[in-house]
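ok here's Thymidylate synthase, seq below lol
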Amino acid sequence: MKQYLDLCQRIVDDGVWVANERTGKRCLTVINADLEYRVDRNEFPLITTRKSYWKAAIAELLGYIRGYSNAADFRALGTPTWDANANLNEAWLANPHRKGEDDMGRVYGVQGRAWAKPDGGVVDQLRKVVDNLSRGLDDRGEIISFYNPGEFHMGCLRPCMHTHNFSLLGDTLYLTSYQRSCDVPLGLNFNQVQVFTFLALMAQITGHKAGVAYHKIVNAHIYEDQLELMRDVQLKREPFPAPQLEINPDIKSLEDLEAWVTMDDFAVHNYQHHPAIQYPFSV
Ligand SMILES: Nc1nc(=O)c2c([nH]1)NC[C@@H]1CN(c3ccc(C(=O)N[C@@H](CCC(=O)O)C(=O)O)cc3)CN21
Ligand SMILES: O=c1ccn([C@H]2C[C@H](O)[C@@H](COP(=O)(O)O)O2)c(=O)[nH]1
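and the structure came out like this:
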């Protein structure tokens, strides 16, 4: 929690105002942040200085793992977080590649599970990583990348957390995740949960111990209409100790994640938090 608050304070103290054309808003911005999550100690990096809707964050991750491309599928899993980008962004609404209500296009999980090959067929990046790790192999390229510039025009948003790189040291699995753009009040609250949970789940289904997850962020920002709430409310609060994440031990394979897992297979223990803060969301 301290590293999150330090980053928020750093943006407030040292951030530079940058105009963002896509949203028409200004963002207070810093470049480069390195966060670490101790999955080995089960220190779940949930924000405690406001109520965090962690189930929605895990639902998003599960949707990416399943390769979803439709906001309705995300809603069915338990998160409305893709509704606005799928249905309220003018540029995407006018895009001829959009296949109707709720379509997100070729974003995130579509690239992770079905990256189109120029010579036909698709690459299932996640399947390859799971198969290698399951037999104890780290080929130094256990990478899942959602960043496909050749298909940006076919999706509602470029991926923000764009690359997940897994590593094996002995029987311990590590994850390094890269994020190009981070809405610190809203997005990071979710992304921390996702990086932690992704490592915990991958360790569980490939039969390894979970180690540390490293989260590398390039552009970390607070939108102008979020600043007051962050500076004058959230940053004035004292954090509570980290809670713990419990994952149903019956989840043993990628097929389990695809077929039957729901948010009921996740529980958080000892989550003490301050009251919710509703931050404005920029589409
Ligand atoms: N501007 C922006 N920020 C983001 O963080 C973001 C995007 N756009 N677009 C793509 C996804 C969608 N994400 C989202 C979208 C909404 C919330 C949100 O409204 N969170 C609320 C409540 C969530 C709930 O009730 O389930 C929160 O208080 O955390 C969070 C992340 C993260 N990403
Ligand atoms: O997982 C996510 C997804 C999105 N965001 C934020 C970061 C930015 O504020 C917007 C995306 O806008 P771009 O113009 O494409 O950078 O969404 C996030 O923090 N985490």
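fwiw The mean pLDDT is 97. kinda neat tbh
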